[in-house]
Amino acid sequence: MINLASRDIAHTLGRYLLTGMGLGLLIGVTLTMAGVYRGMVDDAKVLLHATQADIWVVQEGTLGPFAEPSSLHDDVYRSILGLSGVAEAGNATFLTMQVKQGGKDQRVMISGFEPGHLGEPAFLTAGRPITRPHYEAIVDSKTGFKVGDKIRIRRNDYTVVGLTKRMVSSNGDPMVFISLKDAQEAQFLKDNDAIVNERNRLAANPALNRPGTLGVLAAVEANQFSNHNVNAVLVRVLPGWDAQVVADNIKRWKHMQAYTSDDMEEILVAKLIATAAKQIGLFLMILAVVSATIVAFIIYTMTLSKVKEIAVLKLIGTRNKTIAAMILQEALGLGIIGFFVGKFAATLWAPVFPKYILLESGDAVRAFILTMVMCALASVLAIRAALRIDPAEAIGG
């Protein structure tokens, strides 16, 4: 019995393998794009899980610090601590900015927290926690900083005292943790020139700087240039309490927006990366169509190159079902080679990507099944062409 795939492998091994490798690279790109989406979802969740907060309290009418600006007074957490079911509450600030690392710009997310409270990095891979009130930082190892390095944030230098790992923002930017006071200054305090200009404007205002009322201008300046705002209050509930019930109480009695960790995860995944997910999904569909087209073209040309052999098979009485099965077998063989080449390629180049690529086993299984289905469908055109071959061509030259 003639086996078309075996014949191709025996006589045109190089072309068959190159075809499988070409298909494999396309499958590798498809797996990588799926990994990009998985990595984005994982990035969105990792910070939420690391804070260990059950509830995120933010400014009323906003979606939280990662989706919209949110500002709360830093004494709000005291009133939240008085509510039933609240075990712990801590202030937190978040600011995305550029820092210099090795002469290059590095985009990071600055997180301010109070040591010993919620928002602190869950673990360290090197160094120690922040123990001083100012100018110490814990950074994610992805930033490239080492313990003892200096990192400049705004106009101050911070000493890196600890390293953590896989602590990134929802955009995949590595995190830098500093004390809450330092973070408030970095986020809200104006630069020196802006402060001087603002003081001049206040001094020129006759309503604030009237003769004999010197204390008014000083009080206004103290209020203008001090900052007691945070972006969110992180809350942990007592064991046995439903986080949703506590969140509803915060919204009802404190007139603030309170999201459970599940709500925040939904906001980050369903709203922030929804557009990117649609783009990736569309790109995956295009890749699948391109791959199917290429496989169909390759199988079709391979089949047409074996017209004489197929005619001989028909002449000796081989059933159409058997011929179709051989062409299908050849297409599936290409799919198997392509899948393993693609899986290997995706695993090889994933660590090189600047974005986090998460390759899940479930996606690989689905990709394998999809590849087999795609190759089977792509072989239909070649099977139709093979079944139309006249057996007389076996002796017709």
UniProtKB/TrEMBL annotation:
<dbReference type="InterPro" id="IPR025857">
    <property type="entry name" value="MacB_PCD"/>
</dbReference>
<dbReference type="Pfam" id="PF12704">
    <property type="entry name" value="MacB_PCD"/>
</dbReference>
<dbReference type="Pfam" id="PF02687">
    <property type="entry name" value="FtsX"/>
</dbReference>
<keyword id="KW-0813">Transport</keyword>
<feature type="domain" description="ABC3 transporter permease C-terminal">
    <location>
        <begin position="282"/>
        <end position="391"/>
    </location>
</feature>
<keyword id="KW-1133">Transmembrane helix</keyword>
<keyword id="KW-0472">Membrane</keyword>
<keyword id="KW-1003">Cell membrane</keyword>
<protein>
    <submittedName>
        <fullName>Putative ABC transport system permease protein</fullName>
    </submittedName>
</protein>
<keyword id="KW-0812">Transmembrane</keyword>
<feature type="transmembrane region" description="Helical">
    <location>
        <begin position="280"/>
        <end position="302"/>
    </location>
</feature>
<feature type="domain" description="MacB-like periplasmic core">
    <location>
        <begin position="21"/>
        <end position="192"/>
    </location>
</feature>
<feature type="transmembrane region" description="Helical">
    <location>
        <begin position="323"/>
        <end position="345"/>
    </location>
</feature>
<feature type="transmembrane region" description="Helical">
    <location>
        <begin position="16"/>
        <end position="37"/>
    </location>
</feature>
<dbReference type="GO" id="GO:0005886">
    <property type="term" value="C:plasma membrane"/>
</dbReference>
<feature type="transmembrane region" description="Helical">
    <location>
        <begin position="365"/>
        <end position="387"/>
    </location>
</feature>
<dbReference type="InterPro" id="IPR051125">
    <property type="entry name" value="ABC-4/HrtB_transporter"/>
</dbReference>
<dbReference type="InterPro" id="IPR003838">
    <property type="entry name" value="ABC3_permease_C"/>
</dbReference>
